[in-house]
Design a protein that fits this description.
By secondary structure, the chain is α/β, with parallel strands linked by helices. The chain folds into two domains: about 200 residues, Response regulator (Rossmann fold, 3-Layer(aba) Sandwich); about 170 residues, 3-Layer(aba) Sandwich (Rossmann fold). The chain is built from 13 helices and 15 strands. Strand 8, helix 8 and strand 9 form a beta-alpha-beta unit. It starts with a helix and ends in an 11-residue tail after the last helix.
């Protein structure tokens, strides 16, 4: 009898152990649906390398689930319609996980498409990790159980940025210049709303929206800034549209502070450095001068690719996904989505939470300043001799915004 009991107990322990690592050794294929050609290709290509670099760094025994992650780039050409076509192709090829970030128009289209696909195809569900698209609608009125946002949304970043700007006495006359799509429109709206509450004395002396990826010369906009007497610029521009704006400012000799969302993104730092020590502030979930593991990642990435690792949400994406797989004891997207909803995990800023209500990452934000590399801030962005040094950290509870999401759960 004792022998039988021992056998049963041993068998049970073996079963539990096997179940705990049932997914070990499996390959999780991720389709990255992104603009890998066109005006913002340099950003998409950087992020594809970033996903593959982080996946390789934490593959197999180096992640808690013991799985291999394989990331395949699929070119959407930066178009929402092409993103939908690419999503269909990815599903046809058997991908059950997708990632995307550049462009909220594409993100909204993909989020809706994933929800519809999953409703119509039980057993073939897809999970969408959004690492950079920041339209608040994605986690509010158009929230979707299968969508997880790893970045902070536009309103969170603006709440943090204006909390910093309200204490800058030099900020009196602000010019808003943004891309004419949801993100750019919202940067303008949220800035005006927040500053009306925090610094009602600040004047908005310009509020322009321009076609996305189509302006080749920003000189007319810079001339308007000068004519308006602006002492500060606020912009959510990214990629080519920020790089060319900075170039036009350099050419015109306009040296006023810029408060921006994406000045560290590919190409812009090099043009900033060419213009000298411009006063530029970045609002982001990260900065360029981490120590420890993240510092090692940025150094290794630059050494390997001659480029910068700046989309830190990709690190959190791999960490959260593998933690979700380990918790679910499965690579099945249905089980993994349930495991990631509400999950707390160890991210690049310490404990991070994927809020269960709306699948919006809750995380602290940094204001960092463009300056020359020094003994404390050693990372040379795009090897320019300049860096983005942290000047203020905004706790997650300060940057957090409420949600109107009424999530339908399976």
């Amino acid at each position: 009898m004792k022998f039988t009991v021992k056998q049963v107990v041993a068998a049970s322990l073996m079963t539990v152990s096997a179940a705990a690592m049932a997914q070990k050794g499996e390959t999780v294929k991720i389709a990255m649906i992104e603009g890998l050609s066109g005006p913002f290709a340099n950003v998409g290509q950087n992020q594809l390398k970033s996903w593959q670099f982080i996946a390789d760094r934490y593959n197999g025994a180096k992640n808690v689930a013991g799985v291999k992650i394989e990331v395949v780039g699929m070119d959407s050409k930066g178009s929402p319609q092409e993103a939908l076509n690419t999503f269909k192709a990815a599903v046809d090829q058997g991908f059950r996980y997708i990632v995307q970030g550049n462009g909220s128009g594409a993100a909204l289209a993909l989020s809706d498409a994933v929800a519809k696909h999953n409703a119509r195809n039980p057993g073939k569900e897809v999970v969408y990790l959004n690492y950079a698209a920041v339209d608040p609608a994605l986690t509010n009125e158009r929230c979707n159980y299968w969508h997880f946002r790893l970045d902070a949304d536009t309103s969170q970043k603006m709440e943090a940025l204006t909390s910093f700007m309200k204490d800058q006495p030099s900020v009196k006359k602000v010019f808003l210049l943004n891309q004419n799509y949801s993100h750019g429109q919202q940067v303008s709206k949220f800035f005006k709303d927040a500053m009306a509450r925090k610094r009602p004395d600040v004047q908005i002396v310009g509020d322009d929206l321009h076609p996305m990826g189509q302006v080749k010369d920003f000189a007319p906009y810079v001339a308007k800034m000068k004519q308006a007497g602006a002492d500060s610029i606020v912009t959510g521009n990214w990629g080519q549209d920020l790089t060319l704006l900075v170039k036009a400012m350099n050419d015109a000799g306009l040296k006023i502070p810029m408060y921006a969302y994406y000045p560290q993104v590919s190409g812009t730092p090099t043009v900033l450095a060419a213009g000298g020590a411009a006063e530029v502030y970045q609002i982001s979930y990260a900065h360029a001068n981490y120590g420890g593991e993240m510092g090692a990642i940025t150094d290794e990435y630059q050494k390997k690719f001659g480029d910068d690792f700046y989309t830190f949400s990709i690190y959190n994406g791999v960490k959260m996904l593998t933690a979700g797989i380990a918790k679910a004891k499965s690579t099945d997207p249905v089980k993994v989505a349930a495991a990631m909803s509400g999950m707390k995990f160890d991210g690049f800023n310490g404990e991070s939470e994927m809020r269960k209500l709306d699948h919006q990452m809750q995380q602290g934000l940094y204001v960092s300043k463009w300056q020359k590399v020094d003994a404390k801030n050693k990372y040379s962005v795009e090897k320019t001799g300049y860096t983005f040094a942290p000047v203020k950290y905004i706790e997650a509870y300060v940057a957090s915004t409420p949600t109107s999401c009424d999530m339908k759960r399976p």
